[in-house]
Every structure is written in C-alpha cells, then in structure tokens.
Amino acid sequence: MKLDDVAAVIRPRSGLEAIDLGFVMAVHWRRIVWGAWCTTALPVSLLILLLVPDPGWAVIAIWWLKPLFDRVPLYVLSRALFGATPTLIEVLRNVPRLWSRGLFGALVLYRFSPVRSFTLPVTELEGQRGAEARARARVLKAQSGRRAGHLTFACVLFEGALVMALLVLGYLMLPPEIAPDIELMWVDLMNGEAPAVFDLLYACFTVVAMGVIEPFYVAAGFGLYLNRRTFLEGWDVELTFRRLGERLARAGAHVAQVMVFFWLAGSIVGAVQAQEAAPSGPRDPAIVIAEVLEHEDFSTVTTRLYAPNGSFELDWLWSFLRGLAWVAVATLAAVILWIVLRETGGGALGIGRRRAPPTSPAETAFGLDIRPESLPDDVPGEARRLFAAGAMREALSLLYRASIVHLIERDGLVIGEGDTERDCVAHVEVLADGGRVEYFRGLTQSWQLCAYGRIVPVEARMESLLSGWPSAFGGAA
User: Fold this and answer.
1) Terminal CA-to-CA distance of the chain, rounded, Å?
2) What is the CA radius of gyration of the chain?
3) Which residue, among 320, 449, 457, has the nearest Cα to 392 in the 3D structure?
4) What pLDDT is attached to residue 268?
5) CB under 8 A, 24+ apart: contacts of 373-380
6) 10 Å Cβ neighbour count for 27?
C-alpha cells in the first residue's frame, strides 16, 4: 500500500463514519465494482440455479459461496483506493487465484462469522493464514468488532427486505384475473406447497438482492478495516509528516535558488563597482566626509513635543479622540432613551402617548365565550344536565367559563392577550381566596385533560366539581 496515492482522506473516524466511507467508495467506483460482480458472481449463481433442480437448495448453495464472491469487490476497492483501479480483464484474470486460496477456512471454519467482511482483508490483503491471521483478527476486533457485527445484521435485514419487496412487486404486476389470493399464497408458502414458479422467482430475486447489497457490505467492512489500521498504525500522522517534509523540501529548494541568485548578483555588482573605482585613484578624505554629511540620512530633524509654555503640540489629536468619545456616549444615551420609550410608550418619562387602558372587557379567552350574558341563570344545574346527557366537554366548558366570568366581575381578574390557562391559574392565586383557588386549579386541570387530551373525568370527579361550584362562586351567575 502506498499511502501517498490514497484516494480518500485518511483520518480517525467513528464506526458509523467508517461504514459510511465504505458506502461512498462503493458508489464512487460503482461501475467497476458491480461490473466485476456481474461478470463473476452472477454467472456462477445462474449456473447453480440451472444445475440444482430444487430452487431452495440452489439458494442455500449460492448463499454458502458468498465468502468467495466477496473477494472480488474487495480486490477492486483495495486497488482503486490506492490509485490502481483494475479493469474487468484484470479482475477476470485474478479470479482463479482469488477463489482458490483458503477455501476450507472461508467456507467451513469462518463461514458463520458475524464480522466476516471486517476480517476478510486480513487474509486477502495482508496474506496471513492460520494462527497469525487469528491473532491479527483479534487485534482488529478489539475496538471495531461490535460495529462489524451490527453491519452484518443490518445487511441481512436489508437483503431480506429487498427480496420481499421484489416478491410483492411481482405480485402487484399480475393481472387481477390471474393473480392468486395473497393470503392463500402465503399459507401455501409456509406449508411448503407453493407453486414451483414461486420458488424459482424467490431464488432469482434472492440472487438480485444479493448482488445489490453484498458489494455495499464488503465495502463497509473494508472501511472499518481501514479505520482500525489508521488508529493502530497512525496512517494519518505518517501522511501528515510526509506532506510536511515535501513542503519543506520544496521551500528549501526555493530558498537555495534565491540565495544563489543574490550571491551571484552581489558578486557581479561588487566586481563592477571595484572596476569603476579603480581608475579614479585616491580621493581627498575631507571631500569624502563632506559628501557623506551632506546626505539626507545625516540631516537634522527636530520634533518638538512640548511648547515652551508646557502645552501639548498634538492637542488636535486628543481633541479628535475626545470628540469620538462624546459621540459614542451620546449615541449610547440615545439608544437607551429609545428603548425606554418603546417599552413604556413614553409614559415612563412623562412624554408621548400613554397606552390607553382597555375600554371594554374581553369577550373570549382560550377560545371560550366569557361574556356574562352567554351564561345560563343556573350554571351548576345546566352543567349537571349536560353531564347527565353525556356532553362531558360542554359541561366542563360551562363550569370553566362561568368561573372565569365570576373572577373577572368580582375579583378583577385581567386576562392578557397571550395568557394561557396556566397563566390564568397564576393570576387567580394572587387575587382569590384559598377555597376558590383550589377549586379553580382542579377545574382547570380537568378542563385541560378533556379539551386537549380527550380524557373525561370519572363520575365521582365530575360530581365533586358540580357540587363544589356553588360554594366556590356563589351559586347562580
């Protein structure tokens, strides 16, 4: 494996992320993966269906050969991931070698292993056999074995569901006049008396479902294997250091080139200057000193920070900063004033228009009519009549509406536009006495259960509410 040529991002992943990486690899190289499957596993499966008279035994034989079929998608993915995607000719050329190694272990010893796709790279890619392969598999399964078992179980369910979906689809496509009764068909199937054509269709659909799900299963197991090796061997760290070394090498080469360029340029300039200065002969030192002192680098620059009277000459800068500070303070004060005016309508500062108090009481609350004229003369009597007639919700609604009307009229209860039943109970706890508060709290709970949960109170509970209303709210409205 050449990590420098890997086509995926190598980094530590969780188990589900590793499985998802396998699915993405299968989809990315889908043409060669399923092309290799259709040219190797599919012809063998069809040949078994033709040679074995009983479709049921044919399906069992095909299922038993899955570990051999799985080696082909693994061969394709393992090479495609590292930049050497094989062709179909190369796959077919390697099929005899892939299917001939380790047959006893693949088809007998480890056939029922729940982590088969996860440990398959140990024998096929690492080439380990016997005790070494078992030891290597134990190391790999220490962290990812449970996730690999979950993957196997999920793929078995997906494959079975796909077979059943294909069977149902085939049944739905039959004309109604020749379609058998589905209940009788399933009874015959369970009793082993289904028509032979049904067994053949079941076998064909099983081969199709296997061809759809099995490459995904192999790819997901390969993703778990790659992730486990990344954790164990630090592939991501190795790749990071390799790329860092390459960048440093490229940067070093550039620096060396620049240094050589400047060295050559300096040498040429020095030689030219020496050549130009040689014929002129020695110069008078006094003249040279005078020329140097006349250069602008030796000119005198005087910067006065303080005036003779001690004032700061950079007052304009400080004035500007003070102005910015005053602007910020004024802006903050304006924002605070605007918030206060918005929340109080100007009433908090004695300016603007105060919010007008409501001129008329509310007519509805929680979707209920709370006008006094909407109540009957005898509230508990009417509620008892509704309860006897089986209208539980209407009876509770009447008691609840009448209680709210009495609380508004007698205790000054104010219901806000966005208040809920719970808010109303909180207001009543502040306004009313203990008896009415306890009754109203229980009535509200029964009303909510009936109105929103469709749970009607038992007869004893309803009788308690009916008999307690006159004492809590004074009889007739």
Assistant:
1) 90
2) 45
3) 457
4) 61
5) 374/401, 375/401, 375/402, 375/405, 375/477, 376/477, 377/476, 377/477, 378/476, 379/469, 379/473, 379/476, 379/477, 380/466, 380/467, 380/469, 380/470, 380/475
6) 12
Domain boundaries, the chain: 3-233, 316-355, 364-473
* Helix extents (H) in 234-314: 235-277, 285-293
Query: Tokens in use for 77?
Result: 């993915």
Distance CA 388, CA 80 (A): 79
Residues of the chain with pLDDT under 50: 241, 278-279, 303-313, 348-360, 476-477
DSSP string of 116-148? HHHHHHHHHTS---HHHHHHHHHHHHHHHHHHH
Our measurement of the distance from residue 256's CA atom to the centroid of its chain's CA atoms, rounded to an integer in Å, reads: 48
Q: Which of 66, 65, 54, 67 is nearest to 203 (CA)?
A: 54
For residue 401, the number of C-alpha atoms closer than 13 Å in the C-beta half-sphere is 24
Instruction: Supply the pTM of this predicted model.
Output: 0.50
CA atoms within 13 A on the CB side of 428: 28
Q: What distances in angstroms separate CA 475 from CA 195, 376, 379, 403, 468, one per listed residue?
A: 78, 12, 8, 11, 10
- Specify the pLDDT at position 243: 55
For residue 466, the model assigns a pLDDT of: 83
Residue 86 near residue 231 (C-beta atoms within 8 A): no
- How confident is the model over 153-209, as pLDDT tens digits? 999 999 999 998 988 888 777 776 666 666 666 666 666 666 677 778 888 999 999
Q: What span, in angstroms and rounded, lies between the C-alpha atoms of 69 and 98?
A: 9
The phi and psi torsions of 364 (rounded to 5 degrees) equal: -135, 150
The answer to whether residues 113 and 133 touch, using CB atoms and an 8 Å cutoff, is: no
Single out the residue of 394, 399, 426 nearest to residue 413, CA to CA.
426
* Structure tokens that stand for 430 in this block: 């502040």
